[in-house]
Amino acid sequence: MDTQQTEQIVKELNSFIKNLDRWATQLQTATVILPIISIIASLTVGFFTTELPSIALKGLALLSAFCSIGVSTFKLEKKARDMREAYRYLKHSMLKYVAGEDDIHKLIANYFIAEEKVGNVELDQVSLPKLAEVK
Questions:
Q1: Helix H segments across the chain?
Q2: Distance CA 90, CA 15 (A)
Q3: How far apart are CA 39 and CA 67, in angstroms?
């Protein structure tokens, strides 16, 4: 492998590390914001039942249900942890490469390990039917 190929690989992996960090942060933010939206929508329905039109109440109830069930169905907290773990693992691997402790082949192997840590989107089989029942 020549120097130009190595530089290209390092550049792509650095870009992937930045993406992992961004994705983990976005998922962590969603796991905080979605339950808050759910709570606010539920409280609004509870406190303003007589003041709001029926369609608004139904919309807020639906929003609340989708936010709360969506977080658990798509296992957002787990996915955020997986992304953060992969970010830390690959960032550590990159630092070891830059320090000369690992070679490019070890860095590439660690990339695939980080990909495995990220995994696929998993659905909670208990919460999924609840999402379909929301009316």
A1: 3-47, 54-73, 76-98, 104-118, 127-133
A2: 11
A3: 9
Annotate 9-25 with b (16+ C-beta within 10 A) or e (fewer).
beeebeebbeebbebbe
**How far is 117 from 89, CA to CA, in rounded Å?**
9
Q: How far is CA 17 from CA 6, 52, 57, 99, 114, in A?
A: 16, 47, 43, 17, 10
The whole model's pTM is what? Answer: 0.80
For residue 60, what are its two tokens? 């807020």
Categorize the per-residue pLDDT at 87 as very low, low, confident or very high, splitting at 50, 70 and 90: very high
State whether residue 51 is helix, strand or coil.
coil
d(CA 33, CA 30): 5
pLDDT at residue number 74 = 84
